[in-house]
Amino acid sequence: GNSVTQMEGPVTLSEEAFLTINCTYTATGYPSLFWYVQYPGEGLQLLLKATKADDKGSNKGFEATYRKETTSFHLEKGSVQVSDSAVYFCALVLVSGGYNKLIFGAGTRLAVHP
Amino acid sequence: DAGVTQSPTHLIKTRGQQVTLRCSPKSGHDTVSWYQQALGQGPQFIFQYYEEEERQRGNFPDRFSGHQFPNYSSELNVNALLLGDSALYLCASSLVLAGGGDTQYFGPGTRLTVL
Q: Is the pLDDT of residue B99 over 60?
């Protein structure tokens, strides 16, 4: 079946540290891949996406590259800020005939300290 | 450009009651999906509506039902509430037939507490 596995949290970093959150997937077809972010008490916000192999999604200093050979989509940021503290979800979708169900990982909580 | 809106924000019910949650999609979107997010977990797909019909359904019992209206807004109904139905319910909208249909945009959610 289709699934997403994320590294367990929490991830605790100091401000300006480098961030990596690992994400791997299993899919029967060719999925699009996403990172969503959830701030405390809020819904999900789309952070970035990639729709095919070797695509790099980027937004707000975050980046992730679609690696088909390793079935991975790791999230990175060169210098985190306190405001980046949130839960990050990796997700995939297989679009077929108009159906686009998202499959999420369990989420990784990031805490950034000054 | 209005984003996805949901109502109510919070809801408290008792076991056995019924609840209706509402969602208005992002302007221009025609498809609505519902997800359940239990505390500390990732969202789980409940079902998806397009053209007022349920197109896909996740692994949820028939107590969970929905509806989509001609203006693309949607309702999620849950009957015979159980304690385990306590969760954040998220609505997401997308435009499936325009090529970018794989991107879903989420509302702020409705926090349901069942006592």
A: no
